[in-house]
């Protein structure tokens, strides 16, 4: 379905747009089409301002990959190539500060905000047949920024609330849907520009790293739009442009203070979920909602779209009501979703505040790397508790093996405080 969507949506425009970055004389490319003038009550500086406001919401509510992620670096190379051609022939003399980012979402989508911030889903990279299709998507979105469709259409309505829809509503029903509502007539101008572009014969071919990027994208952990809307994703720790999220070093003695760092402090606060109550170190943070899965991690504990240090608490619906069978199903599900993960020993019965639970150790590769760039060994402690409705509430306490002893007291304190409702 994704490939079909790409072929239907991009066949007429996207491949042609991608040629912007591959023609022998790119300096003339953006000067071929002179768009009609439309009233815009907002200045270009306000475009950038409202775009930055909307981007801040994206970083808060969507799993944006770090700047040092290979997918982000690749997208920035392609995007900067396109941007250099675009700004070489600015429309009405206006150059835009384009910047490019990747969202760990499996749906095929991309969107650009007023002012130049562009976000491309991992699913778009996976579904693109070649670099031209991907670059075409980006060039298409870039044209909306250059033609100022967001603020032009906001001006038609004559309401500041329209800008609020860009800044605050971009995440409501999906970024593309919200922006499309604001840009009702924009496609005709994009289509007119597309018709002026050269033929497919001028395309230079895929770059040398396209194949590896496709492989990397296919193996990246992604989420559906619905999961993201529900907050059912692991936060990446990315807070804005230039952020590498939880790009941290392993825990050391110097980070074991009670005022910060990865190691848990001795002071605890309480998180009230709809299904349970748990205490957690005050120098750690809760990511999630009272009705969704939750990650509790220290600053820097979330690395490269994964949790390196902390605990994930989630629910599981087994096919069998027997707790031993349900635990086996759960372990199989977790292992299948984490290639290379292995179970260590058998699940053991433990008691958590009067509830008969199951405990088992798992090992895998940590997103934390050593000085040679090799992943450290990760140790995960899985604890599963039966719920009254037959589901299972499970917690996975996560650390590198070398640092596990430093975090273990905090893990055990958290588990001792866990109470079902």
Characterization of this structure:
By secondary structure, the protein is of the alpha+beta class. The protein folds into two domains: 2-219, no CATH class; 246-420, Protein Transport Mog1p, Chain A (3-Layer(aba) Sandwich). The chain has helices at 2-10, 14-18, 44-61, 70-88, 122-127, 131-146, 149-157, 160-169, 175-182, 187-195, 210-219, 225-229, 323-336, 404-417, and strands at 99-103, 110-112, 117-121, 268-272, 276-281, 284-288, 294-298, 302-303, 306-307, 310-316, 342-352, 355-369, 375-386, 392-400, 419-420. The strands form four sheets. It has a seven-stranded antiparallel β-sheet with strand order 6-7-10-14-13-12-11, with helices on both faces. A three-stranded mixed β-sheet has the order 1-3-2, sandwiched between helices. The chain has a three-stranded antiparallel β-sheet with strand order 4-5-15. The longest helix is centred in the N-terminal third of the chain and has 19 residues, at 70-88.
- The helix content, as a percent range, equals 25-40%
Class by alpha and beta content? alpha+beta
> How would you classify the quaternary structure?
single chain
The N- to C-terminal Cα distance equals 42 Å
**Spatial ordering of strands, largest sheet:** 6-7-10-14-13-12-11
**Order of helix and strand elements from N to C terminus:** HHHHEEEHHHHHHHHEEEEEEEHEEEEHE
Low-pLDDT sequence parts: 1-34, 157-202, 246-260
The overall number of domains is 2
Question: What percent strand?
Answer: 15-25%
């Amino acid at each position: 379905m994704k490939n079909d969507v790409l072929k239907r949506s991009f066949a007429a425009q996207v491949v042609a747009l991608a040629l912007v970055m591959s023609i022998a004389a790119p300096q003339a490319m953006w000067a071929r089409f002179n768009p009609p003038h439309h009233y815009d009550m907002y200045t270009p500086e306000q475009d950038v301002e409202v775009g930055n406001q909307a981007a801040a919401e994206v970083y808060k509510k969507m799993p944006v990959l770090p700047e040092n992620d290979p997918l982000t670096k690749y997208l920035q190379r392609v995007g900067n190539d396109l941007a250099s051609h675009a700004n070489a022939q600015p429309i009405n003399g206006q150059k835009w500060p384009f910047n490019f980012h990747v969202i760990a979402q499996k749906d095929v989508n991309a969107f650009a905000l007023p002012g130049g911030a562009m976000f491309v889903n991992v699913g778009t990279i996976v579904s693109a047949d070649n670099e031209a299709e991907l670059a075409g998507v980006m060039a298409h979105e870039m044209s909306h920024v250059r033609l100022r469709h967001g603020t032009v259409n906001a001006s038609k309505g004559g309401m500041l609330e329209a800008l609020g829809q860009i800044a605050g509503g971009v995440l409501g029903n999906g970024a593309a849907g919200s922006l499309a509502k604001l840009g009702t007539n924009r496609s005709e101008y994009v289509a007119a520009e597309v018709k002026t572009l050269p033929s497919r014969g001028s395309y230079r071919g895929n770059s040398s790293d396209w194949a590896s990027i496709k492989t990397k994208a296919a193996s990246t952990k992604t989420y559906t739009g619905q999961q993201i809307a529900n907050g059912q994703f692991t936060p990446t720790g990315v807070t804005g442009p230039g952020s590498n999220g939880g790009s941290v070093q392993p825990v050391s003695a110097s980070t074991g203070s009670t005022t910060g760092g990865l190691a848990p402090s001795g002071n605890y606060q309480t998180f009230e979920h709809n299904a349970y109550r748990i205490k957690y170190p005050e120098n750690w943070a809760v990511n999630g909602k009272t009705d969704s899965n939750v990650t509790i991690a220290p600053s820097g504990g979330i690395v490269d779209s994964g949790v390196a240090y902390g605990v994930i608490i989630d629910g599981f619906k087994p096919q069998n009501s027997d707790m031993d069978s349900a635990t086996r199903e759960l372990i199989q599900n977790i292992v299948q979703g984490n290639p290379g993960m292995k179970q260590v020993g058998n699940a053991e019965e433990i008691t958590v505040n009067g509830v008969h639970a199951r405990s088992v150790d798992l090992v895998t590769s940590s997103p934390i790397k050593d000085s040679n760039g090799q992943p450290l060994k990760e140790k995960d402690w899985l604890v599963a508790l039966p719920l009254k409705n037959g589901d299972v509430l499970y917690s996975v306490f996560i650390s590198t093996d070398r640092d596990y002893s430093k975090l273990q007291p905090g893990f055990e304190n958290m588990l001792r405080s866990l109470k079902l409702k």
